[in-house]
Fold this protein.
Amino acid sequence: MDATLTRRRRRAYGEHLTPTSVFETYVLPELLPHLYRYRWVDLFAGRGNLIFPILEQVEPSLRAEFFETHIRLYDIQPEMVEQCVQRAVQLGIPESLARLCIHQRDTLADYPHEILDTPLPVWHVTNPPYLYIGYIVKHPDTQKYLGYFKGTNDGYQDLYQIALINDLRHNIQRMTYIIPSNFLFGCSNSNKIRDDFLPLYWIRKALIFEKDLFEHTGVHVAICFFERKPYPKREPQEFVGVKINHTVQERRYRLSPQFHYRAGSEFDEFVQTHCARRPLKVRHYLMAEELQEHPGECDIRLVDANAFDGKAYRQFTAKVDSILAEQVRRNPLFVRTLDTGSADGRAGLYFIPEEFGADGIVVTKATYRTHPIQLFLEPNLPLEDLRLLRAYVNLLLEYFRELTDSEFLTTYKYSESAYTRKYVGLSQIKALIETFPILDLTPSEREELCRLVSEGNAGEVVRAFENS
């Protein structure tokens, strides 16, 4: 098969075959203690890289008996089924037996109930297809999959989510899934599957890869070990996560049903719980239309957010009336939504005059989330309070980055460097500003907040909120 056809097939099936080395390193050690206690099933088997290493642990003289009792493989592609059959034969399984236990089937649409016809509990070890519904809708080769998302599956966002919910409906006791890490960290694209799935399953362990695992896709994945609960319950759960990038780090995750079981939700919990009694009102962007609506004789120096030459943004002087000129100058903060890649260029709040030597930042064409974005606050704050706000927001951003390993932020680009660039959303900045209690503080409370922030004592700032 030529490269173009192979690539089209991968896209059409959402197929990303698991390297055997990945399975043997990260998954097999977890399964070996349970070798004879489960029926090992892969409903999206590909070449069988997640099951045949299990068979290889059995003495050759016992493999046929083990295979018949403990192994079932399925794949939608006949060529993959044939490869699995031949691989089984090479491991000493009679071909007739291999064909009894390895089948071609679209298991997303037609779940094989026969895998349950055994006194053994089933352990589903799989790397299911990944195809986001937004991609499926746009491409003729994949639109046939839209039927998977109808009826009881309405609202799910990816083929792997259909696989998970199918296992849930068939009471599968244990599963090991290699799936996009957005299952753990995604918001709108993963809230429903987590809300439906995690009341019935524990995550016993997760290996989170912040590097490329597959040859032909940049999708970053997690290997999740699931175990069914004795009865459904919406409750917080904790698990050990191992993050694998240029280093290997272990940390405990706490998932709360209040926040859709999203990993790294500590930031969301803080901003939702501690919104100020009288929060500042926040507006983003100075638009070119506003300049035209306020003609006058006052000069303001503006950065054109849409004109970057690779080194600097174009600047120009606009003549506006005194109302707009005062509004622009009294709101000198802007949001840097994207890390620059250095420690002194982290996402957060900065002053326009200090960074650009200008009064404001104007959008002359379309708004883009990665451009510098001017903030407008109501009521207007004196400069000393704006400096406190900047320090407060940036301090807490760094605190939650450290606490969650930046997981509440969006990854802009993975790399081999120790510093992974992140993106902060405008809604996140707005929510954090709304916790800034400047309008409610007594003079002594303001003095105490200034002290804690100036000392960089983010933990004490957070505890002050929790104790108030």
